[in-house]
Design a protein that fits this description.
Blueprint lengths: L6 E9 L3 H13 L4 E4 L32 H4 L4 E3 L15 H17 L11 H12 L4 E3 L3 E3 L5 H14 L3 E3 L4 E7 L2 E6 L3 E9 L2 H15 L4 E2 L2 E10 H8 L6 E5 L6 E8 L3 E6 L4 E6 L8 E10 L8 H15 L5 E4 H6 L5 H5 L11 E2 L8 H14 L12 E8 L3 E2 L13 E3 L10 H16 L3
Parallel strand pairs: 1-2, 1-9, 2-6, 9-21, 17-18
Antiparallel strand pairs: 3-5, 4-12, 7-8, 8-9, 10-20, 11-16, 11-19, 12-13, 13-16, 14-15, 17-19
Helix pairs in contact: 1-12, 3-12
């Protein structure tokens, strides 16, 4: 690769147009006269069309448009906004108080409301929340509650586009469909090399999301940015008749449950519940993962949620990203390039699933592009044991989830293991170099990612 191209001079360079990058740009545009450039390898939100979102095989988009483009992975996701500091991040890791983070979350929520997010809130009835918390606790399960807003995967791209257009009207420059190859430091300036042109700026915010986290780690190591390894979450996405989840949904749309397995004492959690939603696939260059979403207008007969077990590695192996990627590649190989689908009944009995066995359930799979098989051949035995134990325990709270009709898709893996030590304004050990969003290791989801973007912008504003 040669970098002898046109050099574009800007004050602030932002890599990634997801929630972190967009909210950072908004803060800078509102409160300063900085020249701001946002670079993303994907398309504008309304031009992102990924077949995987509509439950067919994604073969025509590289990178997969589910995770790249304006709005980030959140733009084509379920669009759930968790409006509590208890979900999506840890205030202590960014040296902030619970109360402080709540103030920023309210700012993020106000922006989404202004651009058309549904005003309805979930998780507001304290008596119902207390009932569900008590029911979960009786079975050794922690229920994490908080207010939530649901934008819907069909509405979120429209909301993001309005946000995007306002940022452009305020002078923010976007370079979409532009892949960043390399970051360099020249004196007190940062140089970003892309396929098309080069950019030079006084400040940089790197927020490439989970999809760009592995790439950024290689850049950070080369530049001397300190980082720590953290855990990853590996598991499956469970799909079952929507009626099973309705009693919980009436209390909290996306209820969060945590428990510890009896056999290994490992942390297991539910994640991203989609009532009457759809299971989707995420295609990466060398493996495929599963995820889920729900729309505001179009509903399925099923609900789905992730069941994930926490993996932490120490001596002699610490690189959880490499371990997670090896699991993903193995599962993709066993699935013939597709996700693996299995009945919970078959997994718990130690036998593989076939389409004939799947047809005997009450659950019609919303993701058809998958391979019936045996998840235990793809995921480590420890993780499979945790999943089976978790489903049986969760059946005491989500009654019916352990039934013969529950389907499991694999693998679902959440990569946010590389965590960069930062100040309370997201600045790394290199002056004027900021990180934000899920790639920073300090957020998991739309709202917390947006908060870290605002904090990074405030860090830049404090320097001028």
């Amino acid at each position: 690769m040669t970098y002898n191209m046109e050099m574009i001079e800007m004050d602030v360079l932002i890599i990634g147009a997801g929630p972190a990058g967009m909210f950072a740009a908004q803060k800078l545009a509102n409160d300063s006269d900085h020249n701001i450039t946002v670079i993303d390898m994907g398309k504008e939100s309304l031009k992102r069309k990924c077949n995987a979102l509509y439950r067919d095989m994604c073969t025509n988009c590289q990178p997969c448009e589910i995770y790249a483009g304006v709005g980030g992975a959140g733009a084509l996701s379920d669009g759930k906004l968790n409006l509590t500091p208890l979900i999506g991040g840890d205030p202590d890791s960014i040296h902030r108080s619970y109360k402080d983070i709540k103030t920023y979350i309210d700012m993020v929520d106000e922006t989404f409301l202004r651009f058309g997010a549904d005003s309805d809130l979930f998780g507001t009835n304290e008596d119902d929340l207390k009932f569900l918390r008590r029911k979960a606790s009786a079975h050794g399960i922690e229920f994490i509650s908080g207010k939530q807003r649901h934008m819907g995967s069909d509405k979120t791209p429209i909301i993001i586009d309005k946000f995007y257009e306002e940022l452009k009207s305020k002078g923010v420059t976007f370079f979409t469909r532009t892949k960043v190859e390399k970051i360099d430091i020249e004196g007190d300036k940062f140089v970003v090399h892309t396929e098309k042109q080069n950019f030079r700026g006084d400040f940089i915010i790197v927020a490439p999301g989970r999809a760009g986290a592995y790439w950024f780690r290689t850049q950070a190591k080369r530049l001397g940015i300190k980082n720590n390894y953290g855990p990853i979450d590996v598991g499956v996405r469970a799909e079952f008749p929507a009626t099973i989840y309705e009693p919980v949904e009436d209390i909290m749309y996306d209820a969060k449950f945590k428990l510890y397995s009896k056999t290994y004492d490992d942390l297991i959690r539910t994640f991203c519940t989609n009532p009457k939603g759809f299971v989707t696939e995420e295609r990466y260059p060398d493996f495929v993962l599963v995820n889920g979403h729900a729309k505001k207008d179009e509903k399925s007969q099923n609900s789905n949620l992730a069941i994930l077990t926490r993996i932490e590695l120490t001596d002699p192996v610490e690189d959880t990203t490499m371990y997670g990627r090896s699991i993903a590649r193995l599962a993709t190989t066993i699935g013939g390039g597709k996700p693996i689908l299995q009945r919970f009944k078959d997994l718990s009995m130690g036998r593989r699933s076939t389409w004939n066995r799947i047809k005997r359930t009450q659950t019609e799979p919303t993701l058809k592009n998958c391979t019936p098989g045996d998840i235990s051949m793809a995921l480590p035995h420890r993780i499979v044991t945790n999943i089976v134990e978790a489903v049986y325990r969760l059946d005491n709270v989500i009654e019916g989830i352990a039934s013969d009709s529950t389907l499991l898709y694999a693998p679902e893996i959440k990569f946010y293991d590389t965590k960069y030590p930062v100040t309370n304004q997201m600045e790394t050990n290199i002056p004027n170099f900021f990180v934000a969003g899920d790639a920073s290791g300090h957020s998991r989801g739309i709202v917390y990612a947006a908060v870290t973007g605002i904090l990074a912008a405030e860090g830049i504003l404090a320097k001028r």
